Amino acid sequence: MASRIDKVANDEMMVFRIGGDEFALISGLYDYESVVRLSEQVLAKNGETIDYEGQKLPLSLWCGVTQIPESLRYSEFFTDMHHTIDKSKE
């Protein structure tokens, strides 16, 4: 899944595996419209299948957006990010 997300990222962006099937794309984008376009590119892969041990499995993605203030501590960011992930799955 990370490779599919990584394909929409440019060289200035980073993809991280948070744990399990959760990933984060750190974009550095400040413009909301650019972020929306990026999330639409990621979600465009929804429903495509992956090959796993000879079986085709459908890929389901959720996407949430969090803005990171410059003064935010890592623990606060991690909490905010997980809240955004959970909210995107509702």
From TrEMBL:
Q: What is the lineage of its organism?
A: unclassified sequences, metagenomes, ecological metagenomes
Pfam families reported in the protein's UniProt record = GGDEF
User: What is the protein name stated in its UniProt record?
Assistant: GGDEF domain-containing protein
InterPro entries, alphabetically? GGDEF_dom, Nucleotide_cyclase, Rev_trsase/Diguanyl_cyclase
Record-linked SUPFAM superfamilies: Nucleotide cyclase (SSF55073)
Instruction: List, for all copies, the residue spans of the domain called GGDEF.
Output: 1-90
